[in-house]
Specification:
Rossmann fold, alpha/beta, 2 domains, 7-stranded mixed beta sheet
């Protein structure tokens, strides 16, 4: 095992030092933290091996998004099948540590895990295999963990959700204009997995995008208590439709909600990829994180002998947040132009998703909010995140920390 070999090598080096004669010492250049060792300061792509740990498989839209990105970077960098190892259906348990340790033993220089609940097990592996770089999506602890080989990453997906919300608001306006319901009945239904800040940030951004073009819109949120539960997600969608929701979106990973919408004839904004082929009559658009830029970044950093950021996050302007192609058959007229204009303003910094002038909390406009962005007791737990008139999401830490319950959004079963 790599861990055993590391211990043996360390012991051998100690013996060599203790038994050396004449007080003379010899030294050699130690490899950098990223593992690059060539004289030129970089290695060829053939010298890297990366392992991926996925919570589910390609049946999950969430995991498929990561899998597709991993395949894309493999092709872009010309990596062989032997250099890329996938482990699918790895739960958020000690099985994750076992999978990470196995990948390290199989010679992986980099190990990446894709789910929030994998974090403690990836951190455990990072401590035990210091020669391997461990990278983890949606985590919160790397920036305070003081482990040079442990890294978190996310993206400013709230920007994409805001844009998708604009598409939703445009569709609501079209249905209102067509006489399908009144402006006061413009209710959105949203299926959320858990009551984590990541989910709250996402559905709030989506709602604010919709409200920016359909000011009478309200939203009901139904939680499932699972990232992937097709039955629960379908039932949640049907429940929301039964309660008067005119359009459905979600932060959950199965096809449960989109297929329920297709059956009911209710417009749907999906997440993590297009559902057009299965839902041609109701799918409008989807936002997603494109993980290929991050995968390319960590691999090239390793090859170049450069440190990998402990906490990495990028957005629309870097191509880490994208929208799928718009389904013009279902989308309201003018949606493409509205999305283009809003995207340009977001990238230019002229528009901020969480502009405090656009929402209230219990009837009040916020001028200050202390968010918990650190998880280490040695750090100040609360950080001011409202500056210059807007909530600065994913800037103080890559993982979302927006957990405000704003007016206009009704959470139906917040218990997880």
């Amino acid at each position: 095992m790599k861990k055993l070999l590391t211990l043996l090598l360390t012991a051998a080096m100690a013996v060599s030092v203790l038994t050396g004669c004449g007080g003379a010492s010899s030294s050699s250049a130690a490899p950098s933290a990223s593992g690059a060792t060539s004289a030129a300061g970089s290695q060829a792509a053939k010298d890297v091996k990366i392992g991926f740990i996925f919570l589910h498989d390609e049946n999950s839209t969430y995991d498929k998004n990561f899998i597709d990105a991993a395949k894309a970077v493999k092709e872009k960098l010309g990596l062989s099948d032997d250099q890329v190892i996938f482990k699918t259906n790895i739960p958020e348990s000690s099985e994750c540590y076992e999978a990470a340790a196995d990948l390290a033993d199989r010679g992986c220089d980099i190990v990446f895990a894709d789910s929030f609940g994998h974090e403690q097990y990836i951190a455990q592996a990072a401590e035990e295999f210091p020669e391997v770089q461990f990278c983890h999506a949606t985590g919160t602890t790397a920036h305070t963990a003081d482990l040079p080989n442990f890294h978190n990453a996310f993206a400013s997906i709230y920007e994409g959700r805001y844009l998708a919300g604009i598409a939703a608001g445009m569709k609501l306006n079209e249905m209102i204009e067509n006489g399908e319901f009144t402006a006061e009945e413009a209710k959105i239904g949203y299926i959320g997995a858990y009551t984590y800040a990541e989910v709250i940030s996402g559905y709030t951004a989506f709602y604010l995008g919709a409200k920016s073009v359909c000011p009478t819109a309200t939203m009901d949120v139904q939680f499932t208590g699972s990232w992937y539960d097709e039955t629960a997600e379908k039932e949640a969608a049907n429940l929301l439709i039964g309660r008067g929701s005119k359009l459905i979106s979600q932060h959950a990973d199965s096809m449960g909600a989109p297929t329920a919408c297709e059956t009911a004839g209710v417009p749907n904004i999906s997440y993590n990829g297009s559902t057009l082929s299965a839902c041609p009559n109701t799918f409008i658009v989807s936002s997603r994180i494109d993980w290929e830029p991050y995968f390319e970044y960590i691999i090239t950093s390793f090859l170049n002998g450069e440190a990998i950021d402990a906490d990495w996050s990028h957005g629309l302007d870097e191509g880490s947040v994208v929208l799928t192609d718009l389904n013009e058959k279902v989308a309201a007229a003018g949606t493409a132009d509205a999305l283009k204009e809003a995207k340009e303003k977001l990238v230019a910094g002229e528009l901020h998703v969480f502009d405090t002038a656009t929402f209230t909390v219990k009837g009040e406009t916020l001028t200050s909010y202390m968010a918990d962005v650190d998880t280490d007791a040695n750090y100040t737990p609360d950080t001011e995140v409202i500056e210059d008139g807007y909530f600065h999401e994913s800037e103080k830490r890559s993982a979302p920390y927006f957990d405000l319950r704003i007016d206009g959004i009704n959470t139906l079963n917040e218990k997880f």
